[in-house]
Design brief:
seven-stranded mixed sheet, single chain, alpha/beta, binds S-adenosylmethionine, SAM-dependent methyltransferase, seven-stranded antiparallel sheet
Length: about 400
Protein backbone atom coordinates (compact mmCIF):
# COMPACT_ATOMS: atom_id res chain seq x y z
CA UNK A 1 0.00 0.00 0.00
CA UNK A 2 1.23 3.52 -0.78
CA UNK A 3 1.73 6.10 1.98
CA UNK A 4 -1.04 8.34 0.61
CA UNK A 5 -3.46 5.40 0.32
CA UNK A 6 -2.75 4.41 3.92
CA UNK A 7 -3.58 7.93 5.15
CA UNK A 8 -6.78 8.00 3.10
CA UNK A 9 -7.80 4.62 4.55
CA UNK A 10 -7.34 5.93 8.10
CA UNK A 11 -9.05 9.26 7.36
CA UNK A 12 -12.03 7.57 5.76
CA UNK A 13 -12.69 5.52 8.91
CA UNK A 14 -12.11 8.52 11.16
CA UNK A 15 -14.49 10.69 9.10
CA UNK A 16 -17.09 7.95 9.47
CA UNK A 17 -16.62 8.35 13.24
CA UNK A 18 -15.45 4.76 13.70
CA UNK A 19 -12.37 5.56 15.78
CA UNK A 20 -12.41 4.20 19.33
CA UNK A 21 -8.84 5.14 20.21
CA UNK A 22 -5.35 5.05 18.71
CA UNK A 23 -1.72 5.49 19.64
CA UNK A 24 0.92 6.97 17.38
CA UNK A 25 4.43 6.07 18.47
CA UNK A 26 8.04 5.39 17.45
CA UNK A 27 9.45 8.89 17.04
CA UNK A 28 11.65 9.20 13.98
CA UNK A 29 14.18 11.09 16.10
CA UNK A 30 15.16 9.96 19.59
CA UNK A 31 15.49 13.61 20.58
CA UNK A 32 11.79 14.24 19.86
CA UNK A 33 10.23 15.94 22.90
CA UNK A 34 6.88 14.23 22.32
CA UNK A 35 7.24 10.49 22.96
CA UNK A 36 3.83 9.33 21.70
CA UNK A 37 0.42 10.73 20.79
CA UNK A 38 -2.91 9.23 21.83
CA UNK A 39 -6.01 9.88 19.76
CA UNK A 40 -9.56 9.66 20.97
CA UNK A 41 -12.84 11.02 19.65
CA UNK A 42 -14.89 13.37 21.75
CA UNK A 43 -17.95 15.56 21.41
CA UNK A 44 -17.47 19.24 22.30
CA UNK A 45 -20.53 21.49 22.20
CA UNK A 46 -22.21 18.96 19.89
CA UNK A 47 -19.31 18.90 17.41
CA UNK A 48 -17.28 15.76 16.78
CA UNK A 49 -13.56 16.29 17.55
CA UNK A 50 -10.46 14.18 17.76
CA UNK A 51 -8.40 14.80 20.86
CA UNK A 52 -4.63 14.49 20.45
CA UNK A 53 -2.87 13.85 23.72
CA UNK A 54 0.85 14.62 23.33
CA UNK A 55 2.86 12.62 25.83
CA UNK A 56 6.14 14.27 26.77
CA UNK A 57 8.69 12.79 29.17
CA UNK A 58 6.84 14.18 32.17
CA UNK A 59 3.78 16.06 31.04
CA UNK A 60 0.76 15.72 28.80
CA UNK A 61 -0.62 18.38 26.48
CA UNK A 62 -3.96 18.20 24.72
CA UNK A 63 -5.27 19.54 21.46
CA UNK A 64 -8.83 19.04 20.19
CA UNK A 65 -9.29 19.27 16.43
CA UNK A 66 -12.38 19.09 14.25
CA UNK A 67 -12.66 16.61 11.38
CA UNK A 68 -11.82 19.39 8.92
CA UNK A 69 -8.53 20.09 10.63
CA UNK A 70 -7.67 16.48 11.35
CA UNK A 71 -5.94 15.54 8.02
CA UNK A 72 -3.29 18.22 8.61
CA UNK A 73 -2.84 17.03 12.21
CA UNK A 74 -2.39 13.44 11.01
CA UNK A 75 0.19 14.58 8.43
CA UNK A 76 2.12 16.30 11.20
CA UNK A 77 2.01 13.11 13.29
CA UNK A 78 3.44 10.99 10.48
CA UNK A 79 6.20 13.51 9.92
CA UNK A 80 7.50 12.70 13.39
CA UNK A 81 6.33 9.12 14.07
CA UNK A 82 6.40 5.74 12.32
CA UNK A 83 3.79 3.62 14.04
CA UNK A 84 0.00 3.80 14.29
CA UNK A 85 -1.99 1.35 16.38
CA UNK A 86 -5.75 1.97 16.22
CA UNK A 87 -8.94 0.47 17.57
CA UNK A 88 -11.94 1.04 15.33
CA UNK A 89 -15.52 -0.12 15.79
CA UNK A 90 -15.08 -3.23 13.60
CA UNK A 91 -11.34 -3.66 13.24
CA UNK A 92 -7.89 -3.07 14.63
CA UNK A 93 -5.40 -1.38 12.36
CA UNK A 94 -1.65 -1.52 12.68
CA UNK A 95 0.52 0.70 10.48
CA UNK A 96 4.29 0.48 10.44
CA UNK A 97 6.33 2.89 8.34
CA UNK A 98 9.92 2.41 7.28
CA UNK A 99 12.29 5.37 7.48
CA UNK A 100 11.48 6.07 3.83
CA UNK A 101 7.73 5.69 4.44
CA UNK A 102 7.26 2.22 2.97
CA UNK A 103 3.99 1.07 4.45
CA UNK A 104 3.04 -2.09 6.30
CA UNK A 105 -0.74 -1.99 6.83
CA UNK A 106 -2.47 -4.73 8.79
CA UNK A 107 -6.13 -4.90 9.70
CA UNK A 108 -7.73 -7.48 12.01
CA UNK A 109 -11.48 -7.89 12.56
CA UNK A 110 -12.68 -7.16 16.10
CA UNK A 111 -14.06 -10.25 17.85
CA UNK A 112 -16.86 -8.03 19.12
CA UNK A 113 -18.00 -4.63 17.86
CA UNK A 114 -16.31 -1.90 19.95
CA UNK A 115 -18.20 1.05 21.38
CA UNK A 116 -17.14 4.65 20.83
CA UNK A 117 -17.00 6.74 24.01
CA UNK A 118 -17.40 10.43 23.16
CA UNK A 119 -17.39 11.74 26.74
CA UNK A 120 -14.82 14.39 27.63
CA UNK A 121 -12.65 12.96 30.37
CA UNK A 122 -12.07 16.03 32.46
CA UNK A 123 -9.61 14.36 34.80
CA UNK A 124 -6.16 15.45 33.73
CA UNK A 125 -2.72 14.27 34.73
CA UNK A 126 -1.39 17.31 36.52
CA UNK A 127 2.16 17.76 37.76
CA UNK A 128 0.55 18.33 41.15
CA UNK A 129 -1.69 15.34 41.51
CA UNK A 130 -5.38 15.84 42.26
CA UNK A 131 -5.56 13.30 45.07
CA UNK A 132 -2.22 13.70 46.85
CA UNK A 133 -2.44 15.93 49.94
CA UNK A 134 0.12 18.73 49.67
CA UNK A 135 0.77 20.55 52.97
CA UNK A 136 0.96 23.98 51.28
CA UNK A 137 -2.31 23.47 49.38
CA UNK A 138 -4.03 22.39 52.57
CA UNK A 139 -2.71 25.48 54.42
CA UNK A 140 -3.80 27.75 51.55
CA UNK A 141 -7.28 26.24 51.64
CA UNK A 142 -7.14 24.67 48.16
CA UNK A 143 -7.26 21.07 49.44
CA UNK A 144 -8.95 19.46 52.39
CA UNK A 145 -6.81 17.46 54.86
CA UNK A 146 -7.31 14.25 52.85
CA UNK A 147 -6.07 15.87 49.62
CA UNK A 148 -9.41 16.55 47.93
CA UNK A 149 -9.36 19.76 45.91
CA UNK A 150 -12.21 21.97 47.17
CA UNK A 151 -14.81 22.55 44.49
CA UNK A 152 -14.66 26.34 44.68
CA UNK A 153 -10.83 26.20 44.45
CA UNK A 154 -10.64 23.93 41.43
CA UNK A 155 -9.98 26.78 38.99
CA UNK A 156 -7.13 28.00 41.19
CA UNK A 157 -5.77 24.45 41.35
CA UNK A 158 -5.79 24.29 37.53
CA UNK A 159 -4.05 27.66 37.26
CA UNK A 160 -1.35 26.62 39.72
CA UNK A 161 -0.76 23.39 37.83
CA UNK A 162 -0.57 25.14 34.50
CA UNK A 163 1.97 27.57 35.87
CA UNK A 164 4.02 24.68 37.27
CA UNK A 165 4.00 23.13 33.77
CA UNK A 166 5.53 26.31 32.35
CA UNK A 167 8.10 26.34 35.14
CA UNK A 168 8.98 22.75 34.34
CA UNK A 169 9.45 23.65 30.67
CA UNK A 170 11.76 26.54 31.64
CA UNK A 171 14.09 24.47 33.83
CA UNK A 172 16.72 24.03 31.11
CA UNK A 173 17.25 27.81 31.05
CA UNK A 174 18.11 28.10 34.74
CA UNK A 175 21.63 27.88 36.18
CA UNK A 176 22.74 24.51 37.54
CA UNK A 177 25.92 25.50 39.33
CA UNK A 178 24.61 27.91 41.97
CA UNK A 179 21.56 28.93 43.95
CA UNK A 180 18.70 29.87 41.62
CA UNK A 181 17.01 33.12 42.64
CA UNK A 182 13.31 33.51 41.84
CA UNK A 183 11.07 36.50 42.41
CA UNK A 184 7.28 36.50 42.35
CA UNK A 185 6.14 40.09 41.95
CA UNK A 186 2.67 40.90 43.29
CA UNK A 187 2.54 37.51 44.98
CA UNK A 188 -0.69 38.24 46.89
CA UNK A 189 -1.95 35.12 48.65
CA UNK A 190 1.02 33.36 47.03
CA UNK A 191 -0.55 30.15 45.78
CA UNK A 192 1.90 30.27 42.92
CA UNK A 193 4.94 31.11 45.06
CA UNK A 194 4.31 28.15 47.34
CA UNK A 195 3.64 25.85 44.39
CA UNK A 196 6.83 26.93 42.71
CA UNK A 197 8.84 26.36 45.89
CA UNK A 198 7.20 23.00 46.51
CA UNK A 199 7.80 21.79 42.98
CA UNK A 200 11.39 22.99 42.52
CA UNK A 201 12.70 22.58 46.05
CA UNK A 202 10.67 19.83 47.71
CA UNK A 203 10.04 17.62 44.66
CA UNK A 204 13.07 18.36 42.46
CA UNK A 205 15.58 19.14 45.23
CA UNK A 206 17.00 22.22 43.47
CA UNK A 207 19.15 24.76 45.25
CA UNK A 208 17.01 27.89 45.15
CA UNK A 209 15.83 30.96 46.98
CA UNK A 210 12.35 32.30 46.34
CA UNK A 211 11.01 35.74 47.26
CA UNK A 212 7.40 36.88 47.05
CA UNK A 213 6.80 40.64 47.06
CA UNK A 214 3.51 42.41 47.60
CA UNK A 215 2.13 45.70 48.88
CA UNK A 216 -0.20 44.05 51.39
CA UNK A 217 1.37 43.76 54.84
CA UNK A 218 -1.13 41.37 56.45
CA UNK A 219 -1.07 38.96 53.52
CA UNK A 220 2.72 38.92 53.58
CA UNK A 221 2.77 38.22 57.33
CA UNK A 222 0.40 35.32 56.86
CA UNK A 223 2.51 33.90 54.00
CA UNK A 224 5.71 34.13 56.08
CA UNK A 225 3.94 32.30 58.90
CA UNK A 226 2.88 29.48 56.56
CA UNK A 227 6.40 29.23 55.06
CA UNK A 228 7.84 29.05 58.58
CA UNK A 229 5.33 26.40 59.72
CA UNK A 230 6.06 24.25 56.66
CA UNK A 231 9.84 24.55 57.17
CA UNK A 232 10.28 26.27 53.79
CA UNK A 233 13.48 28.02 54.87
CA UNK A 234 14.46 29.36 51.42
CA UNK A 235 11.11 31.03 50.84
CA UNK A 236 10.59 34.56 52.10
CA UNK A 237 7.90 37.18 51.65
CA UNK A 238 8.57 40.91 51.69
CA UNK A 239 6.27 43.90 51.88
CA UNK A 240 7.15 46.32 49.12
CA UNK A 241 6.36 48.05 45.88
CA UNK A 242 7.71 46.47 42.70
CA UNK A 243 8.71 49.95 41.54
CA UNK A 244 10.96 50.52 44.54
CA UNK A 245 12.46 47.07 44.64
CA UNK A 246 16.06 47.82 43.81
CA UNK A 247 17.91 44.81 45.13
CA UNK A 248 21.05 44.61 43.01
CA UNK A 249 21.47 40.86 43.44
CA UNK A 250 20.55 39.39 40.08
CA UNK A 251 17.43 37.27 39.84
CA UNK A 252 17.27 34.26 37.50
CA UNK A 253 13.53 33.93 37.08
CA UNK A 254 10.82 36.55 37.47
CA UNK A 255 7.19 35.48 37.64
CA UNK A 256 3.98 37.46 37.93
CA UNK A 257 0.43 36.20 38.01
CA UNK A 258 -2.25 38.85 37.54
CA UNK A 259 -0.18 41.83 38.67
CA UNK A 260 -2.50 44.73 37.89
CA UNK A 261 -1.98 47.10 34.96
CA UNK A 262 1.55 48.52 34.79
CA UNK A 263 2.66 46.48 37.83
CA UNK A 264 3.32 43.79 35.20
CA UNK A 265 5.49 46.25 33.24
CA UNK A 266 7.40 47.20 36.36
CA UNK A 267 8.14 43.53 36.93
CA UNK A 268 9.21 42.98 33.31
CA UNK A 269 11.51 46.02 33.45
CA UNK A 270 13.16 44.78 36.68
CA UNK A 271 13.63 41.36 35.10
CA UNK A 272 15.35 42.81 32.03
CA UNK A 273 17.63 44.99 34.16
CA UNK A 274 18.74 41.90 36.09
CA UNK A 275 19.15 39.92 32.89
CA UNK A 276 16.79 37.29 34.31
CA UNK A 277 17.08 34.05 32.34
CA UNK A 278 13.35 33.32 32.46
CA UNK A 279 10.27 35.54 32.64
CA UNK A 280 6.80 34.06 33.08
CA UNK A 281 4.11 36.67 33.34
CA UNK A 282 0.33 36.50 33.13
CA UNK A 283 -0.86 40.11 32.96
CA UNK A 284 -4.07 41.35 34.51
CA UNK A 285 -6.31 44.31 33.79
CA UNK A 286 -4.91 46.86 31.35
CA UNK A 287 -5.64 50.59 31.60
CA UNK A 288 -2.55 52.39 30.37
CA UNK A 289 -2.94 51.95 26.61
CA UNK A 290 -6.72 52.15 26.89
CA UNK A 291 -6.28 55.78 27.99
CA UNK A 292 -3.67 56.68 25.34
CA UNK A 293 -5.11 54.83 22.37
CA UNK A 294 -5.84 57.05 19.36
CA UNK A 295 -5.94 55.53 15.89
CA UNK A 296 -8.69 56.96 13.69
CA UNK A 297 -8.35 54.04 11.27
CA UNK A 298 -9.52 51.78 14.10
CA UNK A 299 -12.49 53.86 15.20
CA UNK A 300 -14.95 51.30 13.87
CA UNK A 301 -13.61 49.02 16.58
CA UNK A 302 -12.58 51.48 19.24
CA UNK A 303 -15.98 53.21 19.45
CA UNK A 304 -17.19 50.12 21.39
CA UNK A 305 -15.94 50.23 24.99
CA UNK A 306 -15.70 46.47 25.31
CA UNK A 307 -13.71 46.07 22.08
CA UNK A 308 -11.49 49.01 22.99
CA UNK A 309 -10.67 47.38 26.33
CA UNK A 310 -9.87 44.01 24.77
CA UNK A 311 -7.92 45.54 21.91
CA UNK A 312 -5.86 47.62 24.36
CA UNK A 313 -5.04 44.50 26.38
CA UNK A 314 -3.99 42.49 23.29
CA UNK A 315 -1.98 45.36 21.84
CA UNK A 316 -0.26 45.91 25.18
CA UNK A 317 0.82 42.29 25.42
CA UNK A 318 2.07 42.40 21.83
CA UNK A 319 4.06 45.54 22.64
CA UNK A 320 5.49 43.87 25.75
CA UNK A 321 6.58 40.81 23.77
CA UNK A 322 8.12 42.95 21.04
CA UNK A 323 10.06 45.07 23.54
CA UNK A 324 11.38 41.93 25.22
CA UNK A 325 12.51 40.52 21.88
CA UNK A 326 14.27 43.83 21.12
CA UNK A 327 16.31 43.59 24.33
CA UNK A 328 17.64 40.05 23.96
CA UNK A 329 14.75 37.77 24.89
CA UNK A 330 12.99 35.10 22.90
CA UNK A 331 9.44 36.11 23.77
CA UNK A 332 6.20 34.27 23.09
CA UNK A 333 2.58 34.90 23.96
CA UNK A 334 0.97 31.62 24.96
CA UNK A 335 -2.41 30.47 26.17
CA UNK A 336 -2.14 30.24 29.92
CA UNK A 337 -5.39 28.49 30.66
CA UNK A 338 -8.72 27.93 28.91
CA UNK A 339 -11.08 30.90 28.65
CA UNK A 340 -13.74 29.20 30.76
CA UNK A 341 -11.30 29.23 33.71
CA UNK A 342 -10.29 32.90 33.47
CA UNK A 343 -10.37 35.43 30.61
CA UNK A 344 -6.92 36.59 31.74
CA UNK A 345 -5.38 33.80 29.78
CA UNK A 346 -2.30 35.10 27.98
CA UNK A 347 1.08 34.20 29.36
CA UNK A 348 4.20 36.08 28.31
CA UNK A 349 7.10 33.66 28.27
CA UNK A 350 10.54 35.07 27.65
CA UNK A 351 13.91 33.32 27.72
CA UNK A 352 17.07 35.41 27.75
CA UNK A 353 18.86 34.19 24.63
CA UNK A 354 20.72 37.47 23.96
CA UNK A 355 19.78 37.11 20.31
CA UNK A 356 20.39 40.50 18.68
CA UNK A 357 17.25 42.23 17.45
CA UNK A 358 16.86 42.97 13.78
CA UNK A 359 16.38 46.45 12.39
CA UNK A 360 13.11 45.22 10.89
CA UNK A 361 11.75 44.20 14.31
CA UNK A 362 12.63 47.64 15.65
CA UNK A 363 10.93 49.37 12.72
CA UNK A 364 7.82 47.25 13.12
CA UNK A 365 7.70 48.17 16.78
CA UNK A 366 8.13 51.91 16.12
CA UNK A 367 5.44 51.88 13.44
CA UNK A 368 3.01 50.01 15.69
CA UNK A 369 3.31 52.29 18.73
CA UNK A 370 3.16 55.37 16.52
CA UNK A 371 0.02 54.08 14.81
CA UNK A 372 -1.69 53.61 18.19
CA UNK A 373 -0.29 56.82 19.75
CA UNK A 374 1.04 54.56 22.48
CA UNK A 375 3.67 55.60 24.98
CA UNK A 376 4.34 52.34 26.76
CA UNK A 377 5.45 52.42 30.37
CA UNK A 378 7.77 49.50 29.66
CA UNK A 379 9.46 51.45 26.86
CA UNK A 380 10.15 54.37 29.20
CA UNK A 381 11.64 52.00 31.76
CA UNK A 382 13.92 50.37 29.20
CA UNK A 383 14.86 53.37 27.02
CA UNK A 384 18.61 52.84 27.35
CA UNK A 385 18.30 49.19 26.29
CA UNK A 386 16.01 50.05 23.38
CA UNK A 387 18.25 52.88 22.17
CA UNK A 388 20.87 50.25 21.39
CA UNK A 389 18.66 48.85 18.62
CA UNK A 390 17.74 52.09 16.91
C1 LIG B 1 -4.76 40.11 41.45
S1 LIG B 1 -3.61 39.94 42.71
C2 LIG B 1 -2.76 38.46 42.24
C3 LIG B 1 -2.06 37.79 43.39
C4 LIG B 1 -1.35 36.49 43.06
N1 LIG B 1 -0.25 36.69 42.15
C5 LIG B 1 -2.30 35.45 42.54
O1 LIG B 1 -2.37 35.28 41.33
O2 LIG B 1 -3.01 34.86 43.33
C6 LIG B 1 -2.46 41.23 42.33
C7 LIG B 1 -1.48 41.48 43.45
O3 LIG B 1 -0.50 42.42 43.00
C8 LIG B 1 -0.18 43.27 44.07
N2 LIG B 1 0.39 44.50 43.52
C9 LIG B 1 -0.20 45.38 42.67
N3 LIG B 1 0.64 46.42 42.41
C10 LIG B 1 1.79 46.16 43.08
C11 LIG B 1 3.03 46.84 43.22
N4 LIG B 1 3.24 48.01 42.60
N5 LIG B 1 3.97 46.30 44.01
C12 LIG B 1 3.77 45.13 44.65
N6 LIG B 1 2.62 44.43 44.56
C13 LIG B 1 1.64 44.94 43.79
C14 LIG B 1 -1.52 43.47 44.77
O4 LIG B 1 -1.34 43.86 46.12
C15 LIG B 1 -2.14 42.08 44.67
O5 LIG B 1 -1.88 41.28 45.79
Amino acid sequence: MEFQQMKEALLERIEQQQLVQATISQPRLKSNDVKRIKLKPLMLKGIYHIQLEYQYERILKHENVTLDAFPAALDACFEDFRQFQGEFVDEQIHVQLSKKNKVLFKTTKQQQKKEVNLAHNRKKNYLLDETTPYPFLIRLGVQTEDGTVKKQKYDKFKQINRFVEFIDDALAHLPKDRTIRILDFGSGKSYLTFALYHYLKVEKGLDLHVTGLDLKKEVIEECNQIAHDLGYDQLEFLVGDINDYNDETAVDMVVTLHACDVATDMALARAVKWGAKVILSVPCCQHELNRQLQAPALNVMLQHGLIRERFAALATDSIRAQILSLVGYEAQLLEFIDMENTPKNILIRAYHTRKPATQEAREQYDAFVQFLSAKPFLHNELTTYLDEVK
